[in-house]
Amino acid sequence: MTSGSNAARKTMIGLLLAGLGAVALTAPAAAQDAEERLDRIEAQVRALQRTVFPGPNGRFFTPEVDTSADAVQPNPVGVPADTALTDVLARLDALETQIARLTARSEENANELAQLQAELEETRTAAAQPTGIIVPPDERAVAVAPSTPAPTPAPAAAEPSPARLAAVQAIPKPSTGDPGEDDYTYGFRLWDAGFYPEARQQLSLFLERYPDHPMRSYGRNLLGRAFLDDGKPREAATQFFENYQADKQGARAPDSLLFLAESMIALEDTNRACIALAEFGDTYAALATGRLKEQYDRDRSRVDCEG
């Protein structure tokens, strides 16, 4: 988003400078030329505004700065009223204000995404830390004083029941000659059958073994879904964000951005859910009206991003 915001900002600044050149012309013909150029500038700024301020249901927010003739500021003392040059100056002032607000909004979105990435990284790091303290056998007598109760060991993971083991084993693993794709497909079948922990184990194995496989974007996205569908939205958010960041052109990167928004909704983090949805609308405009339109509309209907 940062590079897109910079490009938009440079475009708007260039347009503003072009409009300022029109002010230097004082003759009636020059003022008319400036008027025409300003009309073009305003039209393009409105188009840029729709990119930065997407609204719900295919509509867009009303521009924050009204540059119409009815909204211009009063003429300075000593300047004739209702002149073409006066109108040009007033409208340029309004455009400058609008550019500043668009720039600020773009930078806020970029900062929010960076903060979200940092927080998800902290969550992943914390989840990887051991929960207990391992004390060497010859130091236990010193480390644990009589007045200090020994820490309660974490409960061991429950062994799967024989029925579950049999059900998992009944799911066939394909053999197509592409072992990487076979590993992914087996993980998909486990997820599709509702065996989420087993699916996560299989998909993690696939990503570890085949980091450059063409199905890697599918694998990372499905790993996130195996967390989200199992009621673990925080862990899911990490996987979805990493899949989007790793390769924004990946086959399932746009899907991961929408599922990231759903994870944030599950965590009741409206602000970050809206950021993910806005990023999706900016980055994947064609998919927002195509393959992923139904999911995009559904996710936007679940959260109020206008407040």
Tell me what the structure shows.
The chain is mostly helical. It folds into 2 domains: 2-109; 177-301, Serine Threonine Protein Phosphatase 5, Tetratricopeptide repeat. It is built from 13 helices and no strands. Helix 2 runs parallel beside helix 3 (84-128), helix 6 (179-192) runs parallel beside helix 8 (216-228) and helix 9 packs antiparallel against helix 10 (253-266). The longest helix has 45 residues, at 84-128. The protein is elongated, with a radius of gyration of 28 Å. 30% of the residues are buried. The model is unreliable at 56-72 and 129-151 (pLDDT under 50).
Brief rundown of the structure:
The chain has 13 helices and no strands.
